[in-house]
Design a protein that fits this description.
Number of strands: 2
Strand order of the largest sheet: 1-2
Strand content: under 5%
Distance between the termini: 26 Å
Oligomer: single chain
Amino acid sequence: MTIGNVEALWTRALFAPVPVRNAFEVTIERLVQSIRLGVLVEGDRLPPERDLADRFGVSRVTLREAIKALRDAGLVESRRGRGGGTFVAAPPRPRRRSREKIEQAMGHSLDDVLALRKVVEPGAAALAASRTLSAADRSSLREYLRGASEAAPAARRRADSRLHLAVAALGGSGLVTSVVADVQMRLDELLRAIPVIPGNIAHSDKQHAAIVEAILGGEVDTARTEMEEHVDGTAALLRGFLS
């Protein structure tokens, strides 16, 4: 197989249609990976919006939001006028902590942490939905949800983590709650290394609300599925920006 054929294969893989769920986050992941892996290099112009949207199978609104996230992160830049468009920017300054240093500090790889989270947190949400919650429990969960959605940017991560811990605690298992707490601590270290993306926060708020409603409604399978979708979205962003 020639080099050209190999490049065509990985280009098709990176620019293939994304899943309907978490389309925004996965679009960001694919675009960032195409830059990190050298499929697109400094000075390259991204394909036209319509073309990219068609390739990914997403709306142009979703694509524009994803490109804006990359622009905010310094990975691409927009140029106006004849010959304008969106271009891969010069590599940004190294982050304060690289993926390797973060993994060394955690004692685990990014993939290990994300795998643990995908196993534990959807199960914790399903466990909470399986229990008969008191009026106080239900009120408390709604309050944590409100706190996460209304938190100021500086307090967002802490409020988000408290909601996830509340979900775990309502399952009634101290061991499960302890593991979720450990995952959230490691996740915090990872999230500090990537840019804050408003579009992702808005999507996350909707997912949080769906998780809480499923728990309050006693919908075990839905609670598990909604939490799994939520953690997959975060994983897509982390794999993209920390690849």
